[in-house]
Amino acid sequence: MNFFYKSSLFATCLLISISSFSSDDLQINTIKEIYQLGKKLQQGDTLLQAYYDESLESAFHKLTVENAEDCPHMWYDSMWQSNDNEYNQKPSFTKVGQNLVRVKLAAYGNSSSKSVTYRLSCKSGVCKISDIIDINGSLKNQLVMQCQ
């Protein structure tokens, strides 16, 4: 009986760790796939917009040409953290919190290494970007507070 209890407990713990790893893995893999596609298509923010969840998409669509000049995020590519994108760099991906994936971008040219963090919301095996956080803070907050 004691062996059966310990075996059941071990199996339950193993299943919980596997399911949480799979969830984390899905989030990291989603961001990796976006960057692989970005390299291949040589795109950044335009590509990211296809992965926005409803809340980020809604905030972004309220942006107008007139108020875009007040938004630091609008003056550079959030995905590549640059105005002069280097598509051949090899970013690294790290899970840094619940629903957060940090991408570290290598230094190139005169620039130092940079990082950008993506907040993801995942449902039924599909992850969407709910926010992008970089040196200027939260993209969603800027769009809602400063850019409208």
Detailed description of the structure:
The chain is α+β, with helices and mostly antiparallel strands and 148 residues long. The protein has one domain: Nuclear Transport Factor 2, Chain: A. Helix content is 44%, strand content 22%. The chain contains 5 helices and 5 strands; from the N terminus they run H-H-H-H-E-E-E-E-E-H. It has helices spanning 2-41, 45-49, 54-61, 65-68, 139-146; strands at 92-97, 100-105, 114-123, 126-134, 137-138. Strands 1-2-3-4-5 form a 5-stranded antiparallel sheet. A hairpin with an 8-residue loop joins strand 2 (100-105) and strand 3. The chain is globular and about 35 Å long. The termini are far apart. The model is unreliable at 1-22 (pLDDT under 50).
